């Protein structure tokens, strides 16, 4: 069976390395992130051509936790300070380059983030199946200022661990981490959650900067988990025919 690389396959904080500038400059314009449409992509010169891997990611969480704001933050877009619930499905495209430690290969991750308002999901039965179709990962969100959203993770996560959804990458993000004066979720509860569910819990909050440091931990974690998931699938695909041939002989 093919060896599956463990988490840590990509160079950490590669966006800080000088050699990465050629790639990150393709997603930044005048010190701000470029906005890519559904049919747009970064264009590299022939000598630095890279493969692009495509993934669909659904953002799950209670109304008001900041799903739309997080998608905008990850894409480098502006978002309103006043909360307005998403009325239907909203998609956002994010490109993120990463470099493999093992062989130095550079990949562009194309992450299509799907966000849907909680009320719309309850009202229209066809929206959730559309969000789940061919999904590769789920971002589970809770707000550090709303304990009920943290407790609700216990209801959300089991719905995505059923065999019908196959192998999914799962990452948890706590939003509004900067509002520590209004924090309603203790760090000891987060640590206990991580120990129980064995899922990464990342933090987001504060003003959106022009740099990449505030989004790099989340995007790097997503890239790691999605790539690891693909390697597991590829290994299983290789193993299955081998087992069949032994049975036939």
UniProtKB/TrEMBL annotation:
Keyword Mitochondrion among UniProt keywords: no
Keyword Transport found: yes
Gene3D superfamilies the UniProt entry points to: P-loop containing nucleotide triphosphate hydrolases (3.40.50.300)
Name of the gene this protein is made from: CPLANE2
One Pfam family recorded for the sequence: Ras
Primary location recorded for the protein, binned into one broad class: cytoplasm
Any GO BP: protein transport
SUPFAM superfamilies the UniProt entry points to: P-loop containing nucleoside triphosphate hydrolases (SSF52540)
Record family assignment: Belongs to the small GTPase superfamily. Rab family.
GO molecular function, one term: GTP binding
Cell location: Cytoplasm, Cytoskeleton, Cilium basal body
Keywords: Cell projection, Cilium, Cilium biogenesis/degradation, Cytoplasm, Cytoskeleton, Exocytosis, GTP-binding, Nucleotide-binding, Protein transport, Transport
Coiled coil (UniProt feature): none
Name the UniProt record assigns to this protein: Ciliogenesis and planar polarity effector 2
């Amino acid at each position: 069976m093919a060896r599956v690389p463990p988490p840590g396959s990509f160079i950490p904080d590669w966006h800080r390395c000088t050699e990465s500038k050629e790639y990150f400059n393709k997603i930044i314009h005048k010190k701000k992130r470029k906005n890519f449409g559904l049919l747009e992509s970064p264009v590299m010169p022939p000598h630095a051509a890279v493969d692009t891997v495509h993934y669909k990611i659904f953002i799950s969480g209670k109304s008001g936790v900041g799903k739309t704001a997080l998608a905008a933050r990850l894409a480098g877009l502006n978002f309103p300070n006043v909360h307005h619930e998403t009325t239907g499905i909203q998609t956002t495209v994010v490109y993120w380059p990463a470099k493999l430690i093992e062989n130095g290969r550079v990949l562009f991750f194309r992450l299509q983030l799907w966000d849907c308002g909680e009320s719309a999901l309850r009202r229209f039965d066809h929206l959730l199946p559309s969000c789940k179709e061919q999904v590769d990962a789920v971002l589970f969100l809770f707000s550090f200022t709303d304990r009920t959203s943290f407790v609700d993770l216990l209801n959300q996560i089991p719905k995505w661990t059923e065999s019908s959804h196959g192998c999914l990458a799962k990452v948890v993000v706590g939003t509004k981490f900067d509002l520590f004066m209004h924090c309603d979720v203790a760090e000891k509860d987060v640590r206990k959650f991580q120990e129980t569910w064995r899922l990464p819990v990342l933090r987001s909050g504060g003003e959106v900067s022009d740099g990449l440091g505030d989004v790099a931990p989340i995007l790097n974690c997503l890239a790691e988990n999605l790539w690891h998931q693909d390697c597991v699938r590829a290994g299983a695909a290789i193993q299955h025919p081998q087992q069949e041939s032994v049975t036939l002989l």
